[in-house]
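User: Teach me something about this protein's shape.
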Amino acid sequence: MWITDALLGEHAALRLVLEGVEQVAGGCSTVEELRAGFAPFSVALAAHAGVEDELLFAGAEGREWGVGVIGPMRDEHRAIERLMHEVSMRRDLDEACAAVDELAAVVREHFLREEEVLFPAVIEALSDDELSALGEQWARRRDVRLA
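Assistant: First, the predicted structure itself:
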């Protein structure tokens, strides 16, 4: 399995969890409820960004195809981290819900950029063996057994 396939699968799962967070934000009555609904998404998204940073981005740095692509992606990861922190620190429910809305929009845009720009660049630049080796590293980190 290629690393890009694994990360696309994570995007799909994270989008579903994000929809759940948005539903919680639209129906909760306290910031604590929102934080409780947000926490699993925050953990999962941070883990996803971490594996991208460590496996995909680190391997692309210094390669010609990664110039101009990896820097902006890393910057977006940091912006997403700041927004996640903002959601968790807000004390006013309306402000926290607004931060969730902003985060959701940024995450969706970021996923699209990865799917339309980064992943195709990775597929074009790396060999099938390199993509598979990164996929195996992903599987070991996620404790997934590949057939």
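Now, about its shape. The two ends are 9 Å apart (CA to CA). Helices lie at 3-27, 31-60, 70-89, 93-125, 128-142. If you'd like, I can walk through any region in more detail.
User: That's plenty for now, thanks!
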